[in-house]
């Protein structure tokens, strides 16, 4: 799952003409954007030595002090413009002293309305499940190489229960997009919580940063799901090389795209004893993308005519991305498609798509890459049919990103067709894609839910793993 990506840095930016800046601007200004997921953003203005300094916080992602390169305040019109190059973003707004508000747009690719109001403090996020040290088990920072490629060294955390074993070992594999070892998202750290729970139950857990993320080397942007499967097998090889760990069984538990990676890895590695698919897919990637986009849009209240228009647009763009394996060709074809669409469509139709002349490049970066081409064309069924090892597939009934009915039934059908007699599927009532108890399953809820990973689900998964014969 891909979303707003914010990084931490401790730089500041200043603007000229600050002698005209209202003193009331100094302080914290809180607003919200809706990028499919609702996020709080905070602009921190400080006036010092006749200059205005600005940083950005994203409290729902647990990120503070994002630097800005320039801030401009225009006296008379009260216009404010903030440039945030680190995340390729910009804020434009108008300050109103009477209401102590700044109305404007936050632009990161597409413009998103955002009104800021002055606050004295911003409430932090509450994540009660995150473990607190000291842990009742051993924790070790590790690195290991993917021997199939020279430039990938993966860094992770290994947690080991007390005792002599033998232990079952589980490797946690993240979902799509650049993810760290904790699969950190919107202030949640699902893999930190899951690894802590499993290790307390007597399971060795290895979780690692994706290639090219945090402390792992390599290039994430050019990698496909198949490349990530080779990284997962490198993790298997590493654990098996650790003779001091006394491992009895070893398996992979993959979340979302990790649930596609796990079967791929297991189909090429006989050392893997079992896999767990945490909201893994059972239908082709293009079907997943269309289904999830429609369900999420409906959950957000999109009107039917807009849904139909965007579905046709999305299918056309997907077909372009599927038909070409060269990102440059995909990009060129999408740009041509968008230009022709804007030129030959009515204003009413373009309004349904929320598309203007400035959106000619819309969808290019999302679709024009090797990962997306592989994902859209990949059908997990043939790989699932090959598996003879135990497989557990779990999902939530409120999952809008990998809908449970379509995917669990497809996974079960493939395993049954392949004559796998050691599989089980579970659907947890009310859980979303992150395995949180949720109202609707919409991604806009993720950051506001205190629960990181439902304990009932963790208990069921751990029990299944520990009772394997």
Helical content class: 25-40%
CATH superfamily of the largest domain: Alpha/Beta hydrolase fold, catalytic domain
Which structural category do the helix and sheet elements fall into? alpha/beta
Percent of residues in β-strands? 25-35%
Arithmetic mean pLDDT: 91
Q: Mind telling me the CATH class of the largest domain? A: Alpha Beta
Describe, in plain words, how this protein is organized in 3D:
With 469 residues, this protein is α/β, with parallel strands linked by helices. It has three domains: 18-119, Lipocalin (Beta Barrel), CATH 2.40.128; 137-283 and 379-466, 3-Layer(aba) Sandwich (Rossmann fold), CATH 3.40.50; 286-374, no CATH class. The chain is built from twelve helices and 17 strands. It has helices at residues 190-200, 225-241, 258-267, 285-299, 304-323, 327-344, 347-352, 364-367, 370-377, 381-386, 404-417, 455-466, and strands spanning 27-34, 38-48, 51-58, 63-67, 70-74, 79-84, 89-96, 101-108, 110-119, 137-145, 153-161, 167-173, 203-208, 247-255, 274-278, 391-396, 423-428. Strands 4-3-2-1-9-8-7-6-5 form a nine-stranded antiparallel β-sheet, with no helix packed on it. An eight-stranded mixed β-sheet has the order 10-11-13-12-14-15-16-17, with helices on both faces. α4 packs antiparallel against α5 (304-323).
């Amino acid at each position: 799952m891909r979303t707003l990506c914010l990084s931490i840095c401790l730089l500041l930016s200043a603007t000229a003409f600050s002698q005209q800046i209202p003193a009331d601007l100094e302080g914290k200004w809180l607003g919200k954007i809706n990028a499919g997921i609702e996020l709080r953003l905070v602009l921190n203005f400080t006036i010092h030595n006749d200059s205005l300094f600005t940083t950005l916080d994203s409290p729902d992602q647990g990120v503070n002090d994002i630097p800005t390169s320039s801030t401009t305040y225009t006296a008379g019109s009260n216009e404010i413009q903030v440039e945030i190059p680190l995340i390729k973003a910009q804020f434009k707004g108008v300050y109103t002293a009477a209401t102590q508000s700044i109305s404007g747009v936050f632009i990161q690719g597409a413009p998103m309305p955002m009104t800021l109001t002055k606050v004295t403090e911003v409430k932090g996020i509450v994540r009660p499940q995150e473990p607190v040290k000291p842990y009742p088990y051993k924790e070790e920072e590790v690195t290991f190489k993917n021997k199939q490629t020279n430039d990938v060294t993966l860094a992770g955390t290994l947690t080991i229960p007390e005792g002599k074993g033998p232990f079952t070992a589980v490797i946690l594999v993240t979902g799509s997009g650049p993810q760290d070892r904790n699969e950190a998202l919107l202030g949640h750290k699902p893999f930190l919580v899951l690894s802590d729970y499993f290790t307390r139950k007597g399971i060795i857990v290895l979780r690692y940063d994706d290639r090219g993320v945090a402390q792992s080397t390599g290039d994430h942007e050019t990698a496909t799901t198949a490349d990530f499967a080779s990284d997962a097998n490198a993790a298997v090889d590493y654990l098996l090389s650790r003779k001091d760990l006394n491992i009895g069984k070893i398996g992979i538990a993959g979340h979302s795209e990790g649930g596609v990676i796990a079967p791929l890895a297991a189909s090429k590695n006989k050392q893997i004893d079992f896999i767990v698919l945490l909201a893994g897919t059972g239908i082709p990637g293009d079907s997943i993308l269309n289904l999830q986009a429609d369900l999420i849009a409906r959950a957000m209240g999109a009107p039917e005519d807009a849904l139909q228009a965007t579905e046709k647009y999305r299918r056309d763009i997907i077909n372009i991305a599927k038909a070409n394996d060269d990102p440059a060709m995909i990009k060129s074809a999408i740009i041509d498609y968008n230009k022709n669409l804007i030129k030959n469509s009515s204003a009413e139709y373009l309004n349904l798509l929320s598309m203007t002349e400035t959106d000619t490049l819309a969808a290019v970066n999302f679709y024009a890459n090797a990962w997306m081409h592989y994902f859209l064309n990949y059908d997990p069924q043939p790989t699932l049919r090959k598996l003879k090892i135990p497989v557990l597939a779990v999902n939530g009934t409120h999952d809008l990103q990998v809908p449970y009915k379509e995917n669990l039934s497809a996974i079960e059908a493939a395993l049954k067709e392949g004559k796998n007699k050691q599989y089980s599927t579970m659907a947890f009532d009310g859980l979303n894609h992150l395995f949180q108890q949720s109202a609707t399953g919409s991604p806009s809820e993720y950051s506001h839910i205190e629960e990181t990973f439902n304990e009932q689900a963790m208990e069921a998964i751990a029990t299944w793993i520990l009772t394997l014969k």
